[in-house]
Amino acid sequence: MGNDYRLARKLMDSCTERQLRSAIPTISNDSIRQAFITAEELFPGVALIAYANTLQRVAYVSDNSSSILGHESDFLRTLSAPEFVQLIHRDDIKGFTSCYSYLLSRCAGMGDHDRAIFYYRIVDGHGTIRYIEDQRMVLQTENRIFIHLFRDLTGHEIFNVPKLKIVKRVNRSFLPAFEYAPGRVSDVLTPREREIAQLTRMGLRNKEIANRLFVSVYTVKNHKQSLFRKLDVTSSLELNARMDLKNYF
After folding, report:
1. Is residue 222 located within the same domain as residue 209?
2. Most exposed among 20, 74, 80, 122, judged by the fewest C-beta atoms under 10 Å?
3. Above 70 in pLDDT, residue 2?
4. Nearby residues of 127 by Cβ (< 8 Å), 6 or more positions away
5. Domain membership of residue 244 as a residue range
C-alpha cells in the first residue's frame, strides 16, 4: 500500500514516468494500474481515464467516472480518445479543437512539470450539460500512457466557451503560465459593452455608470440590452454571473 499510495499521489501531482521511477525504481505497468486504483480511492472527486499510446485503446477508466461524467463507466471503456470528444457539447467542439491545436503549437516550449487543463461542457447520458475540467498528462512508459483527470465543475464555475490553461510547477506549487480561450465573449463585445459589463460587475447602477462614462442613462440601458441579448441573460445579476472576470477579461 505504501508504494501504491506514493505513486498515486505523484500521479495526481502530474509527475512524469521519469519522476515516478526516481521514487520507485522497479515500477511496472501493473504497479501503474494499482496506482490508478489507489488514486481513485484517495480522490473520489476526480475521475481518471487513461489511453494507450495511439489514443485508440482505453487502458483504464475509474469506476467513479460515471458519477463525474454522467456516462456509465462500461460505456466509457468502449470509447477511444477521438470518440470521447463526441461527448463534448456541439457548441464547444470547434472551440475545444482550437484549444487543442493551440496546445500542440506550444508543446515545444512546455516542460515535464507543466499541466494542460481544458475546460468545456459535455452532455451526459441524460442529456444534461455538465461543466468539466480535464487535466492532461503523459506517462513516458515503454508505450506512452495518456492520462485525463476529470472534475465536474457544474454549479461551481460558469463558462460558456471552451478554454485552455497551462500551469507550470515551481517548487511545490503550480503557477499560471498562460490561458487561451478562442471566441471568448470579450471578443464579440464592443469595447463600450465590455466597459459597462465591468462596471456592472463592480456593483455600479445605470446612473453611476453613465456618470463614470460621461454618457446618458439611456445609452447605458441600450448597451445593457445588447449585452443581455448577446449573453442570453435577463438581468444585471445574471450578467454578473456570466461575465466572471477571471474567464472573460
Report:
1. yes
2. 74
3. no
4. none
5. 185-248
Give dist(CA 240, CA 238) in Å, integer.
Answer: 5
Cα separation of 249 and 185, whole Å?
A: 9
Residues contacting residue 205 through CB under 8 Å, at least 6 positions apart: none
Mind spelling out the 3-state secondary structure of 154-210? CCCCCCCCCEEEEEEEECCEEEEEEEECCCCHHHHCCHHHHHHHHHHHCCCCHHHHH
The answer to whether residues 159 and 247 touch, using CB atoms and an 8 Å cutoff, is: yes
The answer, yes or no, to whether residue 120 has pLDDT greater than 90, is yes
Q: What is the mean pLDDT of residues 188-204?
A: 88
In a domain, residue 2? The reply is no
List the beta bridge partners of residue 136: 116, 148
Q: Which three cell numbers stand for residue 21?
A: 521511477
Assess if residue 8 is contained within a domain.
no
Q: Is residue 73 part of a domain?
A: yes
Q: Is residue 58 part of a domain?
A: yes
pLDDT surpassing 50 at residue 15: no
195 and 150 within one domain: no
Residue in 65, 68, 40 with CA at minimum distance from that of residue 155: 68
Indicate the number of domains in the chain.
Answer: 2
